[in-house]
Please model this.
Amino acid sequence: MLGLIAIVPNAGASNPVSLLDETLTYDVIYKWGFINKVAGYATMSLRNDGNLYRASVFAENAPWANSIYMLRDTLYTTMTKEGYYPVSYTYIAHENGKYKKDVLTFHRDGNTFTADAVRYKRKIEGEPLTSSTIHLEAQGMTVDMLSSFFYLRTLDFPNMKKGQSVTVNIFSGSKKEKLKITYMGTQNVSLNGRSFPSYYINFTFTRRGVESSAPISGWISTDGQRIPLKVEGKLPVGKVRALYTGPNP
Model:
């Protein structure tokens, strides 16, 4: 994600977008050549809790894909309503017999963000868990992998110019990176025969100045809910898309 933090004036998370209690559902579609098939499902939830937001994501394979690669991922985050600062983050993954759980506890002191991260791993089912601990620190706005989606939904896109970007730190269980969010203008997204106006954005992750993954594209509704309508990224073989299928209270 990039060496300098370039938060654009008037483009930060001060825009008065209200995040309401919600449960959003998605189809995860894998495309490679003539293959264009729903490979999984994801549910993202947000709940208000006093001065905090609590959010979660649960993702799993479609039944046909289980025999190829078993995947169950769950993410939890707690963040402040004022500033969208992460308080805690948990990532749990079950992948082909492997198990991984990352637990991060965040602290903020002015412009300095730190996190104590504990990682639990099991490479083969039945083996004992191993654990390791790492301390992460960064200057400037910092998010985790889940709170980043809610933070970017509050950016002041109407007052941003095409090509303008916001860069923040992002912590995971084993590393810190930079997340660069670039506003690419507005586009219409077609879902289930309907067309939705959206803000089109690109995500770039870098670590020590080198891109750590392929760029990801996203489309967010222009209405007051700022719902992520579509996310698309490349894989080593083919590409994957997450398409919004509607609220599920």
